[in-house]
Amino acid sequence: MKNNFFSLGIKSKLTILISASIFLLVFISLTLLVLVGKNQHEAQIKNELINVIEDNAQKIRKRSNLIVLDSARIVKNNIYTSLYNENKVFMYGEMPPDFPPYNDFSAGKLKKVAQFYVYDIAKNVYGQKIFIRGIVSVAATKQTFSSLFYLVLATLPVLAFFTVMLARFFIRKAFRPVEQIIHVAQKIQSNKDLSLRINLDNTVKDEIHALARTFDTLFDSLEQAFIKEKQFTSDASHEIRTPASVIIAQCELALENAENEQNKEALRTILWHAQKMSQMTSQLLLLTKAEHCTEILENEEINLSELAEIIAEQQQEEAEEKGLSLTYSIQDNIFVTGDPTLLTSALINLFSNAIKYNKKDGKINFTLTQTDNLIHGRISDTGIGISEENLPKIWERFFQADKARSKKPGEYYGTGLGLPLVKWIIEAHGGTVDASSSVNKGTIFHFTLPPKK
Ligand code: ADP
User: Fold this and answer.
1) Where are the domains of the chain?
2) Helices (H) and strands (E) in the chain, counts
3) CATH architecture, domain defined by 297-449
4) Could you please report the per-residue DSSP string of 131-159?
5) For 11-161, CATH number?
6) Any idea which fold 175-296 has?
């Protein structure tokens, strides 16, 4: 994934945008403040220069043929006053030491010379034209304000840090309800528990809280729908199971007494379909229970080695009847904690598939071993195999690679529910199950289970 701004999470994006905006806003405001302050201060200095020089012009005196000014007025508030004759030759007063030579005496005009402001007045005193010049330096003001500006620049990293922290704090707070929504949704998914709710504060009226309330209402409706569906499947399975058992029993009885071969064939077909229906309803019932309850029904200590041995022996007989050979090797004293009925059902499903989908004179091998902290079961056959395309689908409900085959009376009846049930049973015991296969060569089912604690 490209690592740019747009690939960031929404919280990071907002933090960056908000902190950048606050940062720029504060920076621009401070800079403007410094600039405006500097200009105002300069304007004040200029005004004062004009006022002082105009005031001084009124206070010019003659002392023993010399045109002079009170010494206290010569340098006042950093404003230097000097007097010049009509030929612009210096007569009296003082100038700042670093003031450059400057001969423009245009009167009544404020002029900027280097870091100085200069203001000249032309006046006739005692029958003589003179110039009164006022000079003030703005170097100090410039210095003060450029120091202020550098101070603003120096505070930028601190400003950046605080804006990011502030933005992060508020965004995290604002996103807490979203995190709560995600957390609950993930929990519903992992625990398959639709009774969970987000339950945000009902009094808050913002959009996120409204979204959470909408989700909660949605979960309510979904939960109701699932309960109804589960109830329906369970009721339907129960209702079908009893008549199916009656049909099976009656068919078996009728088969014993039937003499006519045509009737016998018809009864066998009915029996085959009734058995398939009966198996499907029991598997459906179990699967519906499984989907809504992650807890194992029974939780007892089981000697899996003994249980597997009994099942393998039975299946060996079945296999031999079909002309197949079944060998097994079971390590002694492997114990698990769980439900013996369910584990039996899972093992029988795997064995009966290995028999059902085998070929003439085929072989089946079963091993059960335990390593340090894991039990391994492996059932391999030399049967028809499963194509690469179909392999991931075998765990889906009602999936059958060859649907036509399971519709033919006399063939093994398949429901497409066996492997989903095996998967649920093994996983409900904390284990895993997977399959590998090669078409026309055979299939291997491998499962693991945690040993008894
Ligand atoms: P079914 O009742 O049809 O056997 P399962 O859920 O047990 O249902 O299996 C689903 C499908 O997976 C089967 O219809 C079959 O196509 C395929 N399958 C399962 N086990 C094997 C096997 N050992 N060899 C070949 N195909 C298999």
Assistant:
1) 11-161, 175-296, 297-449
2) 9, 15
3) 2-Layer Sandwich (3.30)
4) EEEEEEE-HHHHHHHHHHHHHHHHTHHHH
5) 3.30.450
6) Helix Hairpins (1.10.287)
Which of 315, 324, 348, 357 is the best mutation target for the ligand 1 pocket, counting ligand atoms within 8 Å of the beta carbon and taking the most? 357
224 CA from centroid of ligand 1 (Å)? 33
Q: pLDDT tens digit string along 203-217?
A: 888 888 889 999 999
Cα of 417 to ligand 1 centre, how many Å? 9
User: Tokens 């996120």 label which residue?
Assistant: 208
Percent of residues, the chain, with pLDDT higher than 90: 49
128-135: average pLDDT: 93
pLDDT at 125 over 90: no
Burial environment of residue 194 by CB neighbours within 10 A (0 to 12, 13 to 18, 19 or more)? middle
| Cα 348 to Cα 181, 244, 312, 313, 341, distances in angstroms | 43, 22, 9, 11, 11
In 300-393, where does DSSP find H-type helix? Answer: 304-321, 340-356
CA 364 to centroid of ligand 1, rounded, Å: 15
C-alpha 8, offset from chain centre: 10
